[in-house]
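Quick one:
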Amino acid sequence: MLERCYCQKSLAHNSTYHTKRVHPSWLKFSTFAKWYYIQARIVASCRYDIADLELDSDLCRTGDDNEWAYSPNTVVFMPKSFNSILANVDGRSNKQSGLPVGITAQGKGYRFKVTDFATGKCTHSPLYNDLNAAYIARCEHTAERIKHQIELHSTLLNAQGSTRYHVTKLTKVKNIMLSNNLASMIREAA
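Output:
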C-alpha cells in the first residue's frame, strides 16, 4: 500500500497510483496493524484466509478526489480473481494497437480474451466483424463477471461493512462502456 502510493519506482510503472494517498493514521504501522488483525478475524469468520486476499482501494470509494484512497472506510479485502476483474474495467485504449483494452484484431474481425481467474484458463470470444459489437460484448461479459463475483463473495464483502459498494453502477454495461476507468464509474455513482 505504501509502496504503491509513495515509491517513485512503483509509481513509474503504474501511474494510476499517482493520485492515491494513505490516510495519515495508517502511516503509523501499529494503527494499521490493529485494523488489519480485526479484519483478519472478520474474514476468517467468513471462511477466508486474509493472506489469500488482496486489499482493494476502488470498490468502496465514492470517487471524491479529497477522499483517502487507503483508509478504514475505503478499502476491502477481496479475492485476487475479483480484484483482477475490477482492475480491467477500463474504457481506455491500448497504446500499441489503438483498440479498446481487451479487444484484439484478428484477420478482418475483433475478439476479446476471457480469462477464468480461478483456473487461469484463457478462452476467446467469438469473432465479431464490427469493433463496436466486440466492445459491447466485452462490456456485457465484464458486467456479468462482476455480478457473479459480488454474489460469490457477498458474505465476505458485507462482513467487512462493504455494503456501500456501487453494485448497480459497476454491473451496468452502459456504464462500463462509457467509463474511462473504474474510479470515474464510482465517482458518477456517488
